[in-house]
Amino acid sequence: MASTKEIVSEMKTISTVLFDNTNEFYIPDFQRSFVWGREEINQLLNDFREDTNDFSIESSELEGYLLGNIVLIANENNKKIVVDGQQRLTSLSLISKAIYDVLDKKIKEDPDNSNKWTKKIGDIPRGYGIINDNDEYVKAKIQHDPSLGFGRYYNKLITDAPDIESYNLETSDDGNVKSVYEEAFNFISEFEENKLFRFIAYFKNKVKLIVTIAPTEAKAFQLFEILNDRGRSLEPMDLIKNNFLKILTSEGKNKNQIDDFNNNWKDFIKNLKISDKKQISSSTFLKQFLIAFNGINVKAVQLFEYIKSGLNDGNVVLKFVENMKITSEHYKKIETGDYSTFDGDNNMYILFKLLSIKQFHSLLMLFYNETKEKKEKVLDAVTRLGAAVLFSFTQTNYIEKILPELCRDYSTLKDKKPQEAFNNLIEKIEKHTKDMAALAKKILVDKNFAGKNGSYNNKALLLLEFIELYFNENPTIITNRKKRKLTVEHILSQKIDMTKCCYADFDMKDDKEFHSYVHRIGNLTLLYNTDNSSVGNKKYNDKLDCYKDSDFTMTTTLVKPKQTTVQDGLETTRCSNINKYEKQYPTPNGHWRKENIDERGKDLAELVYKILVNEI
Question: Are strands 8-13 and 207-214 parallel, antiparallel or unpaired?
Fold first, then answer.
């Protein structure tokens, strides 16, 4: 292909691009940092979910999902230098690794059906590695220039390096690689069998890239310049704007009205831009805007047709665009971490930063200009609902399914009976929350939060942080998040020196029972990474001095009850509840034992339930 001396573009599936064992990619030193994280990978995976109706459709019946363009330089060794598209390629390779690890986990957990899972693995390792004729891993499919900040950790993750859990994440790039992998692993892990198989088939054969290959660096950079610098290409929103202008012109709207439209549109587009490198997805905003104000969930690929056919009255168009401008101002603030629209409420941080549940943008749009009391109440309700969905291990598309009706019913009644409409909305949200909370309570007691390579599932950390910030009202979760790394501490250490004790010391029979308990919520608490390293694998009683001085209430209360000097009924009650559900447990032999894990697990599960249903 390079010998033609021409630039060649072709639409290809992920299977053709990544799973071709002759393709090897090189990320050169001029590439920017790896900036994809939880938000970007979740957006992509949810796009896949939407395109497949929650993986309920056979991939053969789907047109597919176009992920975008990548620009490569092909050299004589068939190694392709990545000029544009390294974020997508790296993320796709991490999804491939996550698929493999989910299937590998199923082989270990379900040995009776190992042949079925092994068959599904097939060529998946080729999505992240170069594999030889003996089906042995040789090297990573994507190689990084040594000067880049994330290549070493990426390779450790891809190769299952034994020291990966103790590896210090040196850069934000490393943290982003870890987040993308973990989010993909968790997303895929939650599928039942049929959906898992459909996801794999869809990912390999229906997700597509436009692959542009240039024969030389000069040609590649010429193309890159054209794509990025020479004028602005026609965007999807331009098509919508042009259609609106046709309507306004055909109806004979006057110059002032047209000028107002253009100014509102310009401000709206400006609000979608967060920075030179970050943009709010126009399709995401439009979807959420239509859920909020039209009560309908429109697929991204159908947005233009919906707007073209549904908005064909000039007066409606003028009001629609003005509303988009006003709404997008608040939306942008929220996306940049400015929660002043909701008076800086901590629940905004919990919802959008900690739990990263962006779907509730839609419902909150309806309350941007409401009273402080209503804002607080609806925000608290949706925060608890979001947490209930997440911690019941229900897929978050549950939220997308219920939102259109909630928004539609509220808006229909609001103008005539505003208070009744609001009360009905809160009541419906609470009903959904109660259903999810009951499921969460049942799951959390015995849930094994084990992740990959003996680590913990990231939801364990989110759950502990949620309790600490929402219920314990500890602002340290926010204020120290960037200064010091938070980790999950295993009270009964994961790695025990069995020359100094035996399983009977923990009331356990063997290694299998030990590993079934060590990642349960009753055995987990919060510590800074530095403190976690200092306590290491010590005996429980030998950790107590560190726990006592911790910044985290749930950790200090393992040693001593919480006390308060505030003479306030609400604060006294909260303190009493903390000491009821986050208490000290007897350890007569100095070890944290099976019965401690069971009892504390039940206490925390009950506490989470009461938090979610607003009974505490």
Answer: antiparallel
Encoded tokens for 280: 């709010």
- pLDDT (0 to 100) of residue 236: 67
d(CA 124, CA 141): 12
The helix or strand, by DSSP H or E, that contains position 285, with its residue range, turns out to be: helix 282-294
Rounded Cα–Cα distance for residues 608 and 437 (Å): 8
Longest distance between any two alpha carbons in the chain, whole Å:
88
Site of tokens 């894990």? 597
Quickly list DSSP for 47-102.
HHHHHTTTTTS-GGG---EEEEEEEEEE-TTSEEEEEE-HHHHHHHHHHHHHHHHH
Q: Tell me the chain's radius of gyration from C-alpha atoms.
A: 26
Q: Is 524:440 a contact under the CB 8 Å cutoff? A: no
pTM listed for this prediction? 0.86
Residue type, 383: T
Instruction: Please answer whether residues 248 and 314 qualify as being in contact, where contact means their C-beta atoms are separated by less than 8 angstroms.
Output: yes
3-state secondary structure of 212: strand
User: Quick count: other Cβ atoms within 10 Å of Cβ 3?
Assistant: 8
How do residues 277-327 score in pLDDT, each as one tens digit? 788 989 899 999 999 999 999 988 888 889 988 998 999 999 999 999 999
pLDDT of residue 388: 98
Burial of residue 413 (CB within 10 Å: 0-12, 13-18, 19+) is middle
Q: How far apart are CA 129 and CA 140, in angstroms?
A: 4
Which residue positions in the chain have pLDDT lower than 70? Answer: 1-5, 76-77, 217-236, 453-454, 481-483, 567
**Helices 172-189 & 86-109, crossing angle to 10 degrees?**
50
Mean pLDDT across the chain? 90
> Residue length, the chain?
616
Task: Report the distance separating Cα 2 and Cα 9, nearest Å.
Answer: 12
Provide the token pair at 452.
Answer: 């990959």
Q: Residue 369 — φ and ψ, nearest 5°?
A: -115, 20
Could you tell me if 41 and 243 are in contact, meaning their C-beta atoms sit under 8 angstroms apart? no
The helix/strand/coil state of 123 is coil
Report H helices in 169-252: 172-189, 193-205, 217-228, 236-250
Cβ atoms within 10 A of the Cβ of 579, count?
A: 15
Contact at 8 Å (CB) between 256 and 318? no
